[in-house]
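Q: Could you fold this chain for me?
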Amino acid sequence: MISQAFLKRTSTLTNMNKSKSPIARLRLRAGLKQIDLALAIGVRSQTISNWEMGRDVPTLPFSRLEALTKALKCSVEDLGRIYIHDSIEEFQRFVKSL
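A: Sure. Below is the predicted structure, expressed as structure tokens.
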């Protein structure tokens, strides 16, 4: 039988993952720490943190964008779709709140 504590912990982890930014979700899926991703693309770990906290979005030259998608094991199109999808959901929530 599954304990209530296990179910609560699993639910908390699932909810935490849902609330993560697109970059954080991709980074975690790739099994990287923030510092690992930062080193792979030549930025400071604070930059990765800013992206994940929503303080900034990735704006990189093409060479670093290639490194980012390689490190995250995704395509440029995947990254774009995730950001557009999240933006659309955010916009829809805003409109509903009016």
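A (continued): Helices lie at 4-19, 22-29, 34-41, 45-52, 62-72, 76-97.
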